[in-house]
UniProtKB/TrEMBL annotation:
It comes from Melanocharis versteri (Fan-tailed berrypecker). Residues 97-113 have a biased composition (Basic and acidic residues). This is SPAG7 protein. CDD domains: R3H_sperm-antigen. GO terms for molecular function: nucleic acid binding.
């Protein structure tokens, strides 16, 4: 009974803390919405339950929210106003633990466009000849020489010990019928 009462008290205390935390987050989120010059806000690292409460508050308020950080202790929530929703590049930067720098992102985008244009120009200049870019024989010439394959092809002969055995190599020159008749005769003698 005593332990049950203590458990109930703890649960009620936890519930109160969650409700208080939610109220605090609702206040912070509404302040954030009213702050005109602030497109996004980063919250302090918090535990899983607190993060889920904050995500819920943000969703109710019509905001976009994401969690970032690798381990449980350093994971934090970032809330974005709908009109400043983050691009995939921005999200990737936060996931890597970097600060988002629009100027650097623009530079990266320009470099990617340049690379794509160069690739297109190479494609338009005509197709590359079919086949591998280099000859594997050149790679192994130091090992096999240049005429090893031709020499090997010239000396190709059938292996006499493989496949059909010529009559000259057979130990037993009798036909099957002769061999069977001999076996039958030996059986008759035994009986």
């Amino acid at each position: 009974p005593e332990q049950a009462a203590r458990m109930k008290k703890l649960q009620e205390q936890e519930k109160r803390q969650k409700v208080e935390f939610r109220k605090r987050m609702e206040q912070e989120v509404s302040q954030f919405i009213q702050a005109t010059g602030e497109p996004r806000r980063r919250f302090q690292p918090m535990n899983k339950i607190e993060r889920s409460i904050l995500h819920d508050v943000a969703e109710v308020a019509g905001l976009t929210s994401f969690s970032f950080g690798d381990d449980e202790d350093s994971r934090y929530v970032m809330v974005f106003k709908k009109e400043f929703a983050p691009s995939d590049e921005e999200l990737d930067a936060y996931r890597r633990g970097e600060e988002w720098d629009p100027a650097r992102a623009e530079e990266r985008r320009r470099l990617r466009e340049l690379a794509a244009q160069q690739e297109e120009a190479e494609l338009e200049s005509g197709p590359a000849p079919p086949g591998p870019p280099n000859d594997y024989k050149d790679k192994y010439r130091h090992l096999i020489g240049s005429d090893a394959a031709k020499a090997a092809a010239r000396t190709m002969e059938a292996n006499k010990a493989y496949g059909c055995v010529p009559v000259a190599n057979k130990r037993d020159t009798r036909s099957i019928e002769e061999a069977m008749n001999e076996i039958r005769a030996k059986k008759r003698l035994r009986q």
